[in-house]
């Protein structure tokens, strides 16, 4: 079975490529490398350095393909507020183009990287897939627009699809070629920033007056290897004409200070931090209800926060 992995040179996409290859899948990658890194592409992969915005690149990438895992897209909340048109073009138009070209190429299976950002500020935690979707930033709005597009595509063209709503992805995979580390420039995510904190440049804790036990925001972290395991299970469970939505997290919440404590344990010293003002747009608490993925996909995360920080730390050395 040949899978087209869009965004296959990014942090999550490259991890997927490695795991899929190890399980015997054949791989094509379409990636413009605007945020990914071509040096992650393993031997034996059909790599098209191209764009979702060019029909010719998409047509070429879909040759001989049985299913698509669609990771490609812009994924920074802050950037999406500054450049909403860029997110509309790359995420929404790019996904529209992909669906059109899949139809023309006769490819009917799709697994899509959606986001917890589609829910916005939750009314209840843990968050169910049936919760209201009120994204609070353009990034989340584009992911929600794509989810709706896929639902329509399943109804009208009978594609078999799953949208996976990621909560906070962390950790790293040690492949035969070494660690597939998270490499974002600039890095905005908590765990990499905590692990790079120094006395001179301590990691900022964005708000210590949130309505939580220790005053810092609570998030649901899931290891990237567990996340990809869920993609493969979702891929294998696709049904024609059906678009399923699954939350992917751990079902547990960790405060920013709890993450710093776990990282300090992994690093072997107290990681320096500095209390800072709240970051605009942050909800206080995001925790996934993952029972749908557990029961319907027979999936469960197996790597906790200690493994995530230890693997991220190892991937940086
Ligand atoms: N944080 C800090 N200091 C930092 C970085 C983050 O205190 O240097 C805090 C944030 O305020 C937040 C928590 O750590 O409370 C986690 O922040 P991240 O930036 O690591 O992750 P987010 O929860 O903001 O965003 C993640 C994904 C998004 C996705 C969102 C879904 O990165 O793509 O979850 O809710 F949209």
Keywords for this entry:
two-stranded parallel sheet, 2 domains, single chain, alpha/beta, binds uridine-5'-diphosphate-4-deoxy-4-fluoro-alpha-D-galactose, 317 residues, UDP-galactose 4-epimerase, domain 1, 15 strands, seven-stranded parallel β-sheet, 37% helix, Rossmann fold
Describe the SSE topology.
Elements: E1 2-6, H1 11-22, E2 26-31, E3 46-49, H2 55-61, E4 67-70, H3 77-82, H4 84-105, E5 109-115, H5 138-157, E6 160-166, E7 168-170, E8 173-175, E9 178-180, H6 190-195, E10 203-206, E11 218-219, E12 221-223, H7 224-236, E13 243-248, E14 254-255, H8 256-267, E15 273-276, H9 291-296, H10 305-316
Parallel strand pairs: 1-2, 1-4, 2-3, 4-5, 5-6, 6-13, 7-12, 10-15
Antiparallel strand pairs: 8-9, 11-14
Helix pairs in contact: 1-7, 4-5, 8-10
The chain binds uridine-5'-diphosphate-4-deoxy-4-fluoro-alpha-D-galactose.
Uridine-5'-diphosphate-4-deoxy-4-fluoro-alpha-D-galactose (UFG) binds next to helix 6 and strand 10.
How many domains? The number is: 2
Helix percentage: 25-40%
User: What's the architecture of the largest domain, going by CATH?
Assistant: 3-Layer(aba) Sandwich
Gap from first CA to last CA: 35 Å
Task: State the CATH topology of the largest domain.
Answer: Rossmann fold
Tally the helices: what do you get?
10
Strand order of the largest sheet: 3-2-1-4-5-6-13
What integer value in Å does the Rg equal? 19 Å
User: So, the CATH homologous superfamily of the largest domain?
Assistant: NAD(P)-binding Rossmann-like Domain
**How much strand content do the residues show?**
15-25%
**Average residue pLDDT:** 97
């Amino acid at each position: 079975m040949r899978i087209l992995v869009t965004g296959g040179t990014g942090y999550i996409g490259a991890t997927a490529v490695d795991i899929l290859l190890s399980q015997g899948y054949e791989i094509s990658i379409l990636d413009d490398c605007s945020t990914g890194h071509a040096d992650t592409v393993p031997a034996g992969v059909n790599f098209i350095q191209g764009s979702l915005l060019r029909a010719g690149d998409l047509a070429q990438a879909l040759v001989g393909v049985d299913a698509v895992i669609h990771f490609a897209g812009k994924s920074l909340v802050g950037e999406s507020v500054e450049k909403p048109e860029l997110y509309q073009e790359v995420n929404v138009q790019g996904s529209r183009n992909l669906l059109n070209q899949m139809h023309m190429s006769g490819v009917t299976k799709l697994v899509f990287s959606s986001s917890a950002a589609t829910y916005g500020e939750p009314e209840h935690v843990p968050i169910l897939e049936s919760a209201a979707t009120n994204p609070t930033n353009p990034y989340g709005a584009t992911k929600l627009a794509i989810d709706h597009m896929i639902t329509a595509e399943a109804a009208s063209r009978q594609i078999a699809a799953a949208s996976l709503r990621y909560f906070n992805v962390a950790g790293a995979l040690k492949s035969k070629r070494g660690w597939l580390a998270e490499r974002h420039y600039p890095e905005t995510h908590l765990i990499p920033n905590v692990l790079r904190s120094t006395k001179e440049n301590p990691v900022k804790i964005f708000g210590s007056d949130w309505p939580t036990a220790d005053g810092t925001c609570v998030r649901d972290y899931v290891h990237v290897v567990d996340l990809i395991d869920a993609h493969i299970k979702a891929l294998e469970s696709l049904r024609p004409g059906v678009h399923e939505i699954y939350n992917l997290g751990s079902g547990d919440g960790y405060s920013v200070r709890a993450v710093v404590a776990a990282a300090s344990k992994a690093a072997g010293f107290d990681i320096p931090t500095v209390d800072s003002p709240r970051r605009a747009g942050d909800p206080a608490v995001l925790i996934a209800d993952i029972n749908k993925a557990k029961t319907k996909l027979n999936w469960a995360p197996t790597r906790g926060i200690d493994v995530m920080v230890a693997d991220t730390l190892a991937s940086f050395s």
